[in-house]
Design goal:
69 residues, mainly alpha, 0% strand, 87% helix
Length: 69
C-alpha cells in the first residue's frame, strides 16, 4: 500500500490538514494582532484542505473496493 501513489497523496493531504490545524492553534494561543488578522483565513484553509482530504480518502476507498488496483 505504501507504493500506491494515491495512498501517498492521501497521507500527504492528511498531514497538510494537521499542519494547518497546528498553525491555527499556534496563532490562537499567541493571540495578538496576527491572530485577529488571520484566524478566519487559517480556518478556511483548514476546512478546504480537510474537504479535499476527505474526497481523496473516499476515492481511495472506492477504488480499493471496486478492484481499481
Amino acid at each position: 500500500m505504501l507504493q500506491d501513489p494515491l495512498f501517498i497523496v492521501v497521507a500527504l493531504s492528511c498531514l497538510l490538514v494537521a499542519g494547518i490545524l497546528l498553525w491555527g492553534i499556534g496563532s490562537f494561543s499567541k493571540g495578538g494582532e496576527y491572530n485577529k488578522r488571520n484566524a478566519n483565513k487559517i480556518m478556511r484553509y483548514r476546512i478546504a484542505a480537510q474537504f479535499v482530504a476527505v474526497l481523496l480518502i473516499l476515492l481511495f476507498v472506492w477504488l480499493r473496493r471496486s478492484g481499481g488496483q
